[in-house]
Specification:
156 residues, mainly alpha, two-stranded antiparallel sheet, 7 helices, 2 strands
């Protein structure tokens, strides 16, 4: 299963495989779970453009910083940004410290597009969760709570 040269413990591989199976089930292309896909199509966004919007939703970055953060080539990041600026989902402004640099950020329309995607994703996840017995929902929530708490601490 290892896609890179990073050494992964066997228990981590097992959890990864189980999470992938769950993820595939939750975001599957069944009609009840297709809301996020429909929003992608309606907004005519590529995965790269959505990743750029997400990266710029809370931070102002240069195209170079965005490319590095997303692991994209500079031309690839530039194309994604140009399309998002043209569609008025991002703004581009001059850096006040270095006029040669342009700062990018998500504007209100971009935030609205991301909210719509999140709402559609949440609806699909909620539909899946509704199929689980109450006891399984409670156990899953209990298992996720400390993991999410640790992730929030790391991000802080």
């Amino acid at each position: 299963m290892q896609a890179s040269s990073v050494q992964v413990r066997p228990e981590a591989e097992q959890v990864a495989a189980e999470l992938l199976a769950l993820w595939r089930h939750v975001i599957g292309t069944r009609s009840r779970d297709a809301g996020a896909y429909a929003i992608f199509e309606e907004l005519d966004l590529t995965l790269t453009q959505v990743k750029a919007l997400c990266a710029l939703s809370n931070d102002e970055l240069t195209v170079k910083e965005l490319a590095q953060r997303l692991g994209l080539s500079l031309p690839g990041a530039s194309r994604a940004v140009d399309a998002l600026v043209a569609r008025e989902l991002l703004y581009r402004r001059e850096d006040e410290h270095d006029r040669r640099q342009k700062r990018l950020g998500c504007n209100d329309s971009g935030h609205h597009a991301l909210r719509r995607l999140d709402e559609a994703r949440l609806a699909g996840i909620a539909a899946f969760a509704a199929t689980l017995p109450a006891e399984q929902c409670a156990r899953l929530s209990t298992a996720l709570r400390p993991i999410l708490s640790d992730l929030q601490k790391r991000d802080a």
